[in-house]
Design goal:
- The chain has about 350 residues and is mostly helical.
- It has two domains: about 150 residues, UbiA prenyltransferase (Tetracycline Repressor, domain 2); about 130 residues.
- Helix content is about 70%, strand content about 0%.
- The N and C termini lie far apart (about 70 Å).
- It is found in: Membrane.
Length: about 350
């Protein structure tokens, strides 16, 4: 009696790859990379448990390491498709892949940052509950996870688009410099935060290969600086001195208020120039931009908000509604023009 042939069950990623239509072959590298990572994870899970883990940990702890609540920042990649009016399925799929990759690389950066700041975070009222600061995930485990994540994102980015790959490299290098040096330099710290947003916007444009508008980039710059200074203001006024970063103490409330006035006004002006010079038919969108800025200023100055801008988009119904109406306005006018 002969031995039966073992039944090979394809991984979920392999099944996805096999189901991709010929017209979307450009996405096969992404599916192939997911398939490779799946097989590596399945084959090495037991050995990793022995080598790196003292005991079984909830997979949710590793999800928390990636700070999914801050993934809303990566939605900025879709701004490239939105403002270039590239609503084709191919463009949207490429931006979606870019969004996933940026969630991965930004998650790896957050892990490195949490490792470096674990002692300071233990004194912070909310950061003390993060997986590394609380001790639920060890430093070695977190570091290995970050390295694997970085490698996976870099390889996949290289296979998909070389320009996008170099943007990811720049984002990674700048944020590592920020973690260990730049975040301790007054004023430069908020510029690095803003630069991260600009890289997201440029990445969204690069991955779909559309022209880059200087007004769009300037709008992103000033909006990012506005959000960053509002965050610093919140840290300065509402977090005890011994629990906040030393660089925050180098600011004053009055100085940050001046910054906020400059950056919020500049955001509106730059967006107005963008609309007037390049897309005057979308002038109605100015209403939503002005309201959004004013609403955010209200939350910062009247309610003490602004400490976590990524949460405001989700938690504040007025901001969320304003963003949805802004997007609908652009899509509706785009479709109306095409009729």
């Amino acid at each position: 009696m002969g031995l039966e042939e073992p039944i090979l069950v394809p991984s979920p990623a392999a099944r996805i790859s096999a189901s991709i239509p010929t017209s979307l072959n450009c996405y096969r590298p992404m599916a192939s990379m997911i398939n490779i990572l799946f097989r590596i994870q399945m084959s090495s899970q037991a050995s990793l448990d022995i080598l790196f883990f003292r005991g079984k940990l909830s997979s949710m702890e590793y999800v928390r390491l990636l700070r999914p609540k801050q993934w809303t920042k990566n939605l900025l990649l879709f701004a490239g498709a939105l403002f270039s009016f590239s609503f084709h399925l191919d463009s949207l799929l490429r931006v979606l892949i870019g969004f996933i990759l940026f969630c991965g690389i930004s998650g790896a950066v957050y892990i490195i940052n949490d490792i470096a700041d674990r002692e300071v975070d233990r004194l912070h009222p909310t950061k003390k509950d993060r997986p590394i600061a609380s001790g639920r995930v060890g430093v070695t485990q977190a570091f290995i996870f970050a390295i694997l994540l970085i490698l996976a994102v870099l390889v996949t980015s290289f296979l998909i688009d070389r320009g996008f790959f170099w943007i990811v490299i720049i984002y990674l290098v700048i944020n590592i410099l920020y973690t260990f040096w730049l975040k301790h330099v007054v004023i430069l710290d908020i510029f690095v935060i803003a630069f991260g947003f600009i890289l997201r916007a440029v990445a969204g444009v690069e991955i779909i290969d559309v022209p880059l508008s200087k007004w769009f980039i300037l709008t992103t710059l000033f909006l990012s600086l506005f959000l960053a200074t509002s965050k610093r203001r919140h840290e300065l006024l509402y977090i005890e001195e011994e629990r906040r970063r030393k660089v925050v103490n180098l600011y004053t409330p009055k100085l940050l208020d001046v910054f906020n006035t400059i950056f919020s006004t500049s955001t509106i002006v730059m967006f107005a120039l963008y609309i007037i010079t390049e897309h005057p038919e979308y002038w109605v969108s100015m209403i939503f931009v002005i309201y959004g800025i004013l609403r955010y200023l209200y939350l910062v100055y009247a309610t003490g908000g602004g400490g976590e801008p990524e949460k405001i988009l989700i938690n504040d119904p007025y901001i969320l509604t304003d963003v949805i109406l802004f997007i609908l306005n652009i899509v509706i006018i785009y479709l109306w023009k095409g009729v």
